[in-house]
Structures are given as structure tokens and as C-alpha cells.
């Protein structure tokens, strides 16, 4: 559906330094998928996303949508192509001098729809996003979540095949974020729209994305199923990014005590039901202190982390650790002496 | 010092007031008709805007700068041949309206451009992303977004024009300001000067009040 083929974007800033916002990015987004692109601010996510509807022209490589190289489009063709791509923004970007209904109608007018069609479809769209009763108010009387709903109604008004979300939930509180994400999921399922979502919030990716690309300094450093990337991060940057979510804070006196190994056990769905920890206690002469733990849900699949302290003789410990690493998703000693 | 003949003053004041209104009115009308398109042109051709065009932008900018930086009295004289060509005469309030109008167009174009720059860039980007033409963006997003600011700008322009119109006397344009200079200044009739200046202050006050009310109403 969307193919980034060695896409690079560079600009020169005020002091004539070249800024490589996006470097040599290649990956492909399938039809009907919800893709997340995560990274810290300034990682180039937004720039990459903007190459999909030519708000930004790549300076190298190609962005291909449905087999068409976007850079080759201009004038009427480009306008027509843009009608088939919806976009929502962090700051909503509604026209403040138009009412909610007029904002949605504006998108359809741009695409050259007839007045009858607009009259019929606008109420349907507002119904879809749950704002049927606010049709005639101006955006400044709406809450952030409501504004984004108008943004979504406007973005899907012309039955687009792709919906681009540029930090669409970053200005919203957690509860409203959830509502908006639910709505996006609903739209994805109902209309089969491919959604590309950029965000710095991992929770957003965890909640609705199937696949994710992690960007750092303009490059995609990791790519794949969200569950895999989040549970088995390969790249240093991904690990740091995830550490905020997955590292459990422990007091220093525990992490500094090298005589008793501290072990982080990560387990996923299937393993979560086995009584692995109690087996270790039973089979080896080891005591297990549970110090911290939590369960995350990624795409509704459980993913647990447990931090335990193992106390016992050296060889028993080695065997116990071996058993753990064989039977869990991942086991690592986190206070090893260097 | 001359003795003030109040009946003569009164018979002079009323037509002068009419002349001031006529000159400023024509200039304002020209500013609205031509200044707004010029301001829009200057904005949309500027860097990173929706119709970026360096050549057009520099050209418009240059013309506006030339008009705005030339002292009005000099412009008044320089434009005499052009004025004669347009209105058929180079004296009277109609003739004074031409240079006044040209200054008004340039001045208002810059004010409009400034107001357009204040329109949320995000909304413009959203419209571009939807595939809107530049014309649709100008009529649906830019002008409505800048509307209340443009009304405020029109008020500033009107007040400035009342001031400029005093110099119209040079080409026999007349007007209250001219009266103040001829009677009050040249003939040392201080009381006439005070009366005419008070009249001008009143006019400016009225313009300002109307402008503010209209601008507030436009701002939803």
C-alpha cells in the first residue's frame, strides 16, 4: 500500500547546515494495517509521514503509494491523490471560522462533491464520530477530544484509503486519548482504511498498532510486529525508549548487592500460566524473593515482567537460572558484576 | 491678525468636510478593491507559502516599498500626469483621491499581508493536505481567518488617510485639513485652526469607534 524506498529528506537550516531529517528509510506498509512510527521529537517521523501526501518531497528515494511514485504527481493529479488521503494533526487544525458541519463539508467541497451528497453525508460522519448534536457550533467551544473527532470526520469524509495521524493524541489527556484511539480502530475495521500513526507515546502504539517502526535521528532502527519489538528490543535506542515503560525501579541497595543475583524474568501469554517460579523453588535449593512485577498488554496479549532476587549456593543458582531462561520468554541477571 | 468671519468659516467648513469624506472614501474603496488582492498575492507568493513565487513576490514587495517610502507630498506631485490621465484633471478632490488611493492601496496591502501571516499555518497545511486549490484556501481559510484583523487595519488606514488628506490642498483638493492649514496656519487664525482640528479629532474618534465595534463583531 505504502512503500518507502530509500527515502531521504534533508534541508538546509538558517546557518546553511544540512539537516538530514530522514535518512535512507525503507519499509512497506500493508493495506488495512495500523502502523505506528515512534521516536523522540526530532527523529524525523513527521517528515517521513509528510512524504506520503507530498507535504514534503523526498530529496532522495521514493515514496510509493499503490504503485505510484508520489514525487511524480503535481497539479490536478496531486490534488486528486490528496483527496484519497486523510490526515489528522496534533493541533487539530480546524477552520475556526467554520462550524463543525462546515469543516467536514469543506473537505468534501474541496474534493468536488455535490451539495446534495455533502448534505447527506456530513450528518452521517458526525454520527460516526459521536458529534451529531454539535453540528452547528464553532470549534472553539469544543474540547480537545471533540475537536479531534471533527478532525477525524473531516479526514475520512472522502472515503480515503489511507489515514495519516500526526501526533493525533499528543495534546489529549489519557482518557480522551483512549476514546480517540478506539474511534480510529473502529474506522480501521469498518472501512478497511490503512492508518499510519506517528507518536512519541508508546502506550498509543501498544494499544492499537499491529506493526511499528522505531525512528532515531532520521533512521529506522527497528521494525516489526509491535509485540516482538516491545518484548525483544534489539537496538540500543529501542531499549532506552522502552526502558521508561518496562524498567521497574528498584532501590540502589538491592541493585548494588552483587552477592545475590537480581533476575528480570519476562514472560508472555502462553508461559504466564505455568508455575515456573514455584518450580524453581521446588526443584533447586533456591529461595526466591519477588521484588517487583507488572503485566503489560500489547495488542491485548499479556506480557509480564517480574524482578526477583535469588538466594542460594552458586551451582544451584546456575541451574535455577538455566531452568528459568529455558522456560520463560527472557531471563536476565541485571546486577551482574562487570 | 485677521478678524475671523464666522459665517464665512461656516460656509467653508461644510463643503470642506464633504471633500475630506469624498477623498478618504474613494481611497478606502480603492484600498479594499485593490489592496486586498495585492496583500493576498504578496502573502501566497512568499517563501514556503501555498503559491511560492520568488519573482512575483519580490516585484510586489518592491512596488509597495517604493510607494510607502516616498513622502506623500512628493508622490502627490510626481503622480500629477497620471492623475490627469485617470480623472481628466489635476486639481480638486477627485485629483487628490488618486495619489491618496495609491498610498492607501499599498498601505492596506501590507496590513492585509500581516494579518494573513497571523492565520494558523496548521490550518493551511491541513487544507493543502486535503488537496485544496490556492483559491479555495484563500477564500475559505485565509480571508475569513484574517477578517477581523483586516477590519482593524481598515480603521487604522482611514485614520491615517484623514491625516494625509490635509496635504491634498497642494493640488486644490480641499478638505478640513486644508482649511486648517490655509486659514489657521497661513492666516494666523488660531481659533479657526482649533475648530478645524477639533472637527478632525471628532472624525477620527468616530472612525475609530465604528472600526472597533465592527472588528469585535467580526471576531467570533
Describe the structure.
The complex is a heterodimer of chains A (338) and B (220). Chain A has helices at 45-50, 75-83, 100-110, 115-128, 144-156, 174-191, 202-208, 226-231, 236-246, 252-255, 269-272, 276-283, 314-327; strands at 2-12, 18-29, 34-38, 60-65, 68-69, 85-89, 162-166, 194-199, 211-216, 219-225, 262-268, 286-298, 301-312, 330-333. Chain A is α/β, with parallel strands linked by helices and 338 residues long. A 6-stranded mixed beta sheet of chain A has the order 6-7-8-3-9-10. In chain A, strands 2-1-4-5 form a 4-stranded antiparallel beta sheet. In chain A, strands 12-13-11-14 form a 4-stranded antiparallel beta sheet. Chain A is elongated, with a radius of gyration of 24 Å. Chain A starts with a strand and ends in a 5-residue tail after the last strand. Chain B has a single domain, classed as MetI-like fold. The model of chain B has no long low-confidence stretch (mean pLDDT 89). Classes of the chains: A alpha/beta (338), B mainly alpha (220). At the A-B interface, helix 2, strand 6 and helix 3 of A face helix 6 and helix 7 of B.
Descriptive key words:
heterodimer, A: 338 residues, alpha/beta, Rossmann fold, Alpha-Beta Plaits, 2 domains, 6-stranded mixed sheet, 4-stranded antiparallel sheet, 13 helices, 14 strands, 37% helix, 30% strand, elongated, B: 220 residues, mainly alpha, MetI-like fold, 9 helices
